[in-house]
# Entry
Amino acid sequence: MRTSTPARAGQYIALLAYLVFLAFPFLWLVSTAFKPPRELGSLHPTWVPKDPTLANFRQAFDEQPLLHAALNSLLAALAAAVVAVLIATPMAYVVARRRTRLAKAVTGWVVVSQAFPFVLLIIPLFLVLKNLRLINSLPGLVLVYVVWALPFALWMLAGYVRAVPPELEEAAAVDGAGRVRTLVSVTAPLLAPGIVATALFAFITAWNEFFFALVLLKTPEKQTLPVVLTHFIGAEGVADLGPLAAAAFLATLPSLVVFALIQRRITGGMLTGAVKS
# Structure
């Protein structure tokens, strides 16, 4: 059925309103980052700074070790993404291809685990890391990020595995390839978009995570970027708005850059024409 013109116009208007709703916080953040102090305190704020300045960025770097904190966040996020994908890929293959009770139990665990809030998990995780002597360390934080990202990563990759035609694996088996060889040489290359999307999810989740990093990391030299951003808020809750906006703007750039670089791989289909029906 063809959509009528008024209905299509309404869809476009709703989509535009949704995009404006999503873009408003980021655009206002960018505007605030370049405003001088007198414009930040103005009773009539404007979208575009009248006298843009880079003083907020210089002050942010002078007041807090942003580069070192960003390096800590980058290392933790990359390690968590790589480890989560390496663990979740073979698990997703088994869950998607094996219709057993264990596979159903794993799928149920994935769904149930997403319902637990951070507060209920932090105490047992803290005790486990304490026994492993991983408190106040980046490896301990990476372990927590992997545990937190693994259920959703498994669920995502299982869906991608189900989209891979079993006929390809059967053809590889006929040619003498074992299950490991089939997974590495046949299935894994076709899962590239799913693996990239899952790694992106794990990376962004770890990069933006605040609660676990705040509880587990006490030494200033080991703190991640989201924790360091809170240092721009004074003891009485008054925020140094200009430097905070500048630092927050810089903190959002890596996620945007990573997504821009790999978004084609996420949306590109790699299975078209793989099997001839």
